[in-house]
Amino acid sequence: MFAHGDRLTRRDLETISDERRRYELVDGTLLVSPSPRPLHQRVVARLLAALTPVCPADCEVLPAPVDVVLDEFTVMIPDVVVGRRETFTERALVGVPVLAVEVVSPSSRYIDRHLKPARLAAAGCPYYWVIEPGEPTLSCYRLDGGEYVLDGEATGEETVRLEVPYRLDLRPADLVSTY
Question: What is the pTM for the complete model shown?
Fold first, then answer.
């Protein structure tokens, strides 16, 4: 489909019609992820339920798949994204999100812990959260001087209390619970 060694663009990404996998671009390199497992989606659903009521009117909370276009060569799909309403188009969030959240899967650990936060920090995304459902752990980072610093973290039944980007208390155990 694409010539070997070519740096791919946002337009190239839009030509892919396979909806069984997640396709992202980081600096022109194609990343392909399998569809998520039920535990992963449970965490996403619980997080959406927690974030939506505290999200201000000028922002919107959406689950994947929503393209986040940082530039012509970098299009990412966070598991949960919060963006300002004016940055959403009919196809994507174009620009920097307010918050990007990744739920770590075995196949995405390096990408979620290193590659995505590096690109989001470089673009100026103020908040980045990582959820490890197996432990479960929630790590909340904020941008400080171009790098993410840990703003709050909790494991299992512990509660992380946040003031920014929203006043919110979260327990990782609640995000994975089957009730």
Answer: 0.91
